[in-house]
Amino acid sequence: MTVTAAAHDGGIPAPAPGTAPQQVTMSGAINRALRDAMTADTDVVVFGEDVGTLGGVFRVTDGIARDFGPDRCFDTPLAEAGIVGFAVGMAMAGFRPVIEMQFDAFAFPAFEQIASHVAKMRNRTQGRVNLPIVIRIPFAGGIGGVEHHCDSSEAYYAHTPGLKVVTPATVEDAYTLLREAINDPDPVIFMEPKRLYWSKGSLPEDASPDAQIASSFGRAAVRREGIDVTLVAYGPSVDVAMQAASAAMGSGWSVEVVDLRTLVPFDDQTVVASVRKTGRCVVVHEAQGFAGVGAEIAARVQERAFHSLHAPVLRVAGLDIPYPPPKLEHLHLPGVERVLDAIARLQWDDQADALHLPESSPACDSPASDSKGGAA
Amino acid sequence: MSDRSSGTGVHRAGVFARAPAQAPAGGAHTLEADALTTDTSTPLPQTVPSPPADRPFARGLVPAPMPVQFLDDQGHRVQVFNDDYPEPAAEQLVAAYSAMVVGRRFDVQATALAKQGRLAVYPAARGQEACQVGSMLTLSKDDWAFPTYRDSMALVARGLDPVEVLTSPHGAAHCGYDPRANRTAPQATPLATQLIHAVGFASGEQRQGRPTVAMAFVGDGGTSEGDFHEALNFAAVFNAPVVFLVQNNTYAISTPLTRQTAAPSLGYKGIGYGIASEQVDGNDAMAVLAVLNKAVAHARAGQGPVLVEAHTYRLDAHTNADDATRYRSSAEVEDWIRRDPITRLEAWLRQEGLIDDAFVAATAQKAEAFAADLRARMSVDLVVDPMSLFDNVFGTPTPQLLEQRAMVQAELEAEEASR
Question: Is B393 in contact with A122 (Cβ distance < 8 A)?
């Protein structure tokens, strides 16, 4: 288990005291990681739609084409399957492509290339051809984007054997996880929470082309320690979980927050250790809940920590609807209130959760309780 | 010969020459006036129609109005839009003959193995020998091939171990050969998806300063896929040294070409991307070699990708599981048998005194020995390590995969103990 910077009131942890690290945005940290990786290894190339002269629609690749030249960072035709397939060939020729899908839903045309080729090449060739490709995907909502610009597609990738699926929640992780992704011999889907692009934080102190990147893949981070409830979150939802944890203090709940960092590989160990300690678990993510990553996590937790659980594992997820228009996204996205409501249903005082009992069913052992304040 | 290719008023200009940046507007142009061709031979005098005044005309990119041909159905030397292509060297033609005879024998043997249940399935290429063999003989050892599932014969012609080629339908693994050692990508089943890999690879090799050419295979059906479009477009934009070989074998399983395209010929599909294009009689090995020799040289010289449509015919059903009588007549098949690529080339080689009865007999014997060896090696019962299931999902297995591996291991040990 990794315990990172101590919690403060909501949001991303502040830098450790005694240091004066450089404050950057998450998009700046990703830019820096790309530059450092490109400096460290001339086989690293960046391409995609508008990533060259423009620097990408989110400016993540700002200045890279200018500074590294058009052979290292270039625009492609507007065709996502083509970009991914081209990267497959470039990787076979010895490069380490880092490619950008402009928005999450725009990656769907590339899904066949990703699922049938990127994910399977090592397996299809009995390990003779591996594909060190990073597919960067700006994902999730919260930016008031119009349709097709705010999807969360992590479940599709996590369900596909052969892909590593990574999503940073902090500026520091954006840098280190991307460096690790580029170094990885296998393909990595690197999902960048759009709403965190402008969040500020610090780079790791040793951020540089030759920085030794400690492995974080498969190692969840405990962002905040607590003893009553574990909130499991990733990417943009970690911030929501941190805020909910702070708010929960008012009701007397001590909440632990686990940031998964990588969905694949999945860190069962850290999640289960936390739940064994707290006995209660809520999974938070933006993607629609049905058949989502949260369902997998809930299943894994109850398979491994059933006897430690005081209540069913609950999920707070996006609604099972196509991503809504901007004026309604606040109702779709998991917020602090919805997380607190879920925490309240965790059978405090041994009160059964009657939410899903049919009206006509015989009385259960305990009456339904909607109370939020029943902390153990 | 495809009758689809006739009836168009568009005539070609230079072979594989790039389109001029600004096409002259209006008026007719003769081929002689077009100095864009890289070939020094004199093209046939043809008239090209006036290009639209408001946009560049694709002169230099258009294929011949009829498939390029060197040998007619009886193996007689003919002149059909072939002036721009040097006749292949005698050694290459003799090598092609041998490889086609061995290749067909391999193909027939593989079909038999499938019918016997030794292979799960086999998509035959009998009838397409000129394309299968011609494509590989035009590549250098360091070039790469990006084949489909129907190109097993081509891989054998390339020199790959036939047992390794058949590993996938044999059932032991997905791809039996080492792609890097054999300079051959795994055979693609999702059609046209590997074309863009060829483009990225060729572009990557070019960026690495290596003179590699990639030969990318697709069929008539595959040209309808979106990835065909994206691959051609990327290839043209990045000037990648790729030769796209479209083996138009007339059917995509059962669906005829008329349901795939309304284009005058699949060769015309290159024009819109700015890709030099050609169509060739795919059952004329001399023509296939001549056109592909030039296409490979064109790509290697950095002059950009080339699209070649080869008109051919799949004599067998789609696979051993298919019933071709449901969608085509035996008369049609008979008609194509008369255009058999092997007999055509053999007739011409004999005529020229390049091969004789003894050579033909020795080649047939070589093919029989090849098939006998394949039969013997394929009749050995496969031993597959069950734990190989978990070997190459990732470079390093995840904890979850290790758990599942242990579960399967325990099951197998329990099964073994109960015997």
Answer: yes
Query: Helices B285-300 and B341-351, interaxial angle, to 10°?
Result: 90
Strands B144-146 and B214-219: parallel
* Nearest-by-CA chain B residue for A81: B227
| Distance of alpha carbon B393 from alpha carbon B386, whole angstroms | 14
pTM of the predicted model, to two decimals? Answer: 0.89
Q: What residues pair up with A165 in beta bridges, in sequence order?
A: A189, A264
Note whether B234 contacts A76, CB cutoff 8 Å. yes
The range of the structural domain enclosing residue A124 comes to 23-202
Catalytic residue of the set B327, B350, B375, B405: B327
Question: In this complex, do B196 and A122 lie within 8 Å of one another by their Cβ atoms?
Answer: no
Asked if B392 and A92 come within 8 Å (Cβ–Cβ), the reply is: no
Q: Are residues A189 and A237 in the same domain?
A: no
Domain with A306 in it: what CATH number?
Answer: 3.40.50.920
Among A43, A114, A124, A264, the residue to mutate for chain B (most B Cβ within 10 A): A124
Domain-located, residue A298: yes
Q: Does B395 touch chain A (CB under 8 A)?
A: yes
Tens of pLDDT, residues B56-115 = 323 478 999 999 999 999 999 999 999 999 999 999 999 999 999 999 999 999 999 999
Once rounded to an integer, what is the mean pLDDT over residues A105-109? 96
Do A46 and A166 fall into the same domain?
yes
pLDDT at A311: 96
Long-range contacts of range A249-253, CB-CB < 8 Å, 24 or more positions apart?
A251/A340, A251/A343, A251/A344, A251/A372, A251/A373, A251/A375, A252/A373, A252/A375, A253/A226, A253/A228, A253/A229, A253/A343, A253/A375
Cβ of B204 and A92 within 8 Å?
yes
Query: Is A225 a member of any domain?
Result: yes
Q: Which of A82, A112, A218 sits opposite B190 (nearest CB)?
A: A112
How would you classify residue A207: left for phi > 0, otherwise alpha for psi between -120 and 50, otherwise beta?
A: beta
Task: For residue range B9-31, list pLDDT tens digits in order.
Answer: 344 445 665 444 443 343 333 33
Minimum distance, in Å, between the CA of residue A354 and any CA atom of chain B: 34
Residue range B244-260, pLDDT digits in tens: 999 999 999 999 999 99
Instruction: Verify whether the Cβ–Cβ distance B203 to A88 is below 8 Å.
Output: no
Domain ranges of chain B: 69-378, 386-417
For chain B, say whether A269 makes contact (Cβ under 8 Å). yes
Q: How many domains does chain A have?
A: 2
CB of B231 less than 8 A from some CB of A:
yes
Do both A194 and A85 map to the same domain? Answer: yes
| The one catalytic residue among A149, A307, A310, A330 | A149
Domain B69-378 fold is Rossmann fold (3.40.50)
Q: Which residues in chain B have Cβ-Cβ distances shorter than 8 Å to A304?
A: none
What sign has the CA pseudo-torsion A158, A316, A296, A12? Answer: positive
Of A92, A125, A161, Cβ closest to residue B175:
A125
B199 touches chain A (CB under 8 A): yes
Per-residue pLDDT tens digits for A168-182 = 999 999 999 999 999
Query: Nearest CA of chain B to the CA of A111: how many Å?
Result: 11
| A285 a catalytic residue | no
Separation between Cα atoms, residue A260 and residue A270, nearest integer Å: 9
pLDDT over 90 for what percent of chain B? 81
**Does A364 map to a domain?**
no
Kindly state whether B273 is in contact with chain A, defined as any CB-CB distance less than 8 angstroms: no
Q: Are B216 and B184 in contact (CB under 8 A)?
A: no
Together in a domain, A67 and A193: yes
Rounded Cα distance, B338 and B40, in Å: 34
d(CA B307, CA B236): 11
- Indicate whether A31 and A81 sit together in one domain: yes
Q: In a 10 Å sphere around its CB, with 0-12 CB exposed, 13-18 middle and 19+ buried, how is residue B382 labelled? A: exposed
User: Could you tell me if A59 lies within 8 Å of chain B, comparing CB atoms?
Assistant: no
